[in-house]
Design goal:
By secondary structure, this protein is mainly beta. It folds into 2 domains: 1-53, no CATH class; 65-210, Sandwich (Immunoglobulin-like), CATH 2.60.40.3940. The protein is 12% helix and 33% strand. It has helices spanning 17-38, 76-79, and strands at residues 65-66, 88-95, 103-110, 116-118, 128-132, 135-144, 148-152, 169-176, 183-188, 192-196, 202-210. It is elongated and about 90 Å long.
Length: 211
């Protein structure tokens, strides 16, 4: 972290320039230091190009951790900050899908009308979710001794909160591992889907998408 010192209202009109010279020098050096945090600095033929972009986690809509849960309407933590006609990028803490959720920073982009895309991700686990152009993607693994069961989006791993589709779940696809799963039951809701097989002991990956 860099705390850049800057003196406002310098030079001050009533002052003798010699009085303000030390503060003006501090300001000049601070501008150089500020530029060099994320950019190649002065005196370089690539001066002004980005080196690294630092974006601290910010509170949007009063929240620093963004995790839609049952009972929310859409993505309130994000939509509260939309600016008509302005494209924004921002960092929020992101709660992963696991029995003991670990929070990580993620980069998001939002259109002026509130369409959200998740630009980064860290999906080390086999179960997760992300937003892409206003479409919610969710995926996971089922390892069950049953012939039929219901999967709850996100809550399937023991977490208390679900991640519902705000409007519709468009579809579910599965990739069996071993025994062939017969079908996915028509009972698909904003928070769950029910699957069925012709035998017990089923292992498969699934993928769901909606908005």
């Amino acid at each position: 972290m860099v705390n850049v010192i800057y003196n406002d209202s310098i030079p001050d009109a009533p002052n003798n320039p010699s009085q303000d010279q030390p503060k003006m020098q501090t300001n000049t050096n601070s501008i150089r230091s500020l530029v060099e945090i994320d950019h190649i600095g002065f005196g370089n033929n690539q001066g002004g190009y980005h080196k690294t972009v630092h974006q601290p986690v910010v509170g949007i809509g009063g929240q620093t951790s963004w995790n839609p849960i049952v009972g929310s309407v859409g993505r309130l933590a994000v939509e509260a900050a939309k600016i008509l006609g302005v494209q924004q990028e921002f960092i929020l803490n992101y709660t992963t899908d696991s029995p003991t959720p670990a929070t990580d920073t993620q980069l998001f982009s939002m259109t002026g009308k509130g369409g959200v895309s998740q630009l980064t991700g860290n999906a080390a686990q086999q179960e997760g979710w992300c937003w892409c152009g206003g479409i919610l993607l969710q995926w996971g693994e089922v390892n069950s001794a049953l012939a039929t069961d219901t999967v709850t989006f996100k809550g399937r791993s023991g977490t208390t909160n679900t991640i519902p589709f705000p409007n519709n779940c468009f579809g579910i696809t599965i990739q069996p591992r071993g025994v062939t799963v017969k079908n996915i039951n028509a009972a698909v809701t904003a928070t769950t889907f029910t699957w069925g097989s012709n035998v017990a002991n089923n292992i498969f990956f699934w993928f769901a998408w909606g908005n």
